[in-house]
Design a protein that fits this description.
This protein has 293 residues and is an alpha+beta fold. The protein has a domain of 46 residues: Beta Barrel (OB fold (Dihydrolipoamide Acetyltransferase, E2P)), CATH 2.40.50. The protein is 19% helix and 29% strand. It has 5 helices and 17 strands. A 5-stranded mixed β-barrel has the order 8-9-10-12-11. GO terms for molecular function: RNA binding. It comes from Takifugu rubripes (Japanese pufferfish). Its main location: cytoplasm. Keywords: Cytoplasm, Exosome, Nucleus, Phosphoprotein, RNA-binding, rRNA processing. Belongs to the RRP4 family.
Length: 293
Amino acid sequence: MAAEMRLPTIQKQGSMSIYGKGRKDLVVPGDIITSDTGFMRGHGTYVDEDKLTASVAGEVERVDKLICVKPLKTRFNGEVGDVVVGRITEVQQKRWKVETNSRLDSVLLLSAVNLPGGELRRRSAEDELTMREYLHEGDLISAEVQSVFSDGALSLHTRSLKYGKLGQGVLVQVSPSLIKRQKTHFHNLPCGASIILANNGFVWLYPTPEQQEEEAGGFYTSLEPVNLSDREVISRLRNCLMALAAHKVLLYDTSVLYCFESSLQHQVKDILKPEVMEEIVMLTQQKLLEQKG
């Protein structure tokens, strides 16, 4: 059986800028973005023979004279004020290392957490010795980005009572680009569960607490058994998130809730079947369009 093969050839690149009439937004590595010399080189680009060329696959963004390429798939690049969910990976001197889906581990300083009881005081050597009693390796936390170090690592804080150690629930990991930026990323859904849509792509699903133990200062975690109906709701939400992420639908409280409602005619385990997944996502997108209309 004969097979036809072609040798790779060098494509002739035109000198027309992407920002002409034939504008295109998506590029792959090696694409010439522009041959004009008046533009500044941003992230995701390099200069080759006086032509600005893409070094990653993604969407071209232009701010005045600065051109950069925003990758379609990337690690989390945090900004001050972002809500994150992360996992403690290491306990160090006066700080915890936290995995937050970034290029580098994030840092949670001992001085940036509320002590049990919500005490506001200087941290002592005794506090440093008992750090593992507050948070130890493997614990999940919700936090906020306080600052960004010069190397890109994030400094976190949990000084608000809405942040702190996470108890029983389910962690779902999606691309950070699918999380819609909103004023709040903590939602108590009417279906009976709560969700944290963290900017770093870590989504936390958990039973809606009946009452918040404020005096715990963010370290209280309920170990009471989760009843069957709550587990079913959380499992359905988890599968809905997987379906939305597979079809690249933005995740926010409304889209998740519409997807949950669209999935009620199916069993939880069937939601992940490709044909059911596609049907549910189509119904969700229709509801979102009707809401905008």
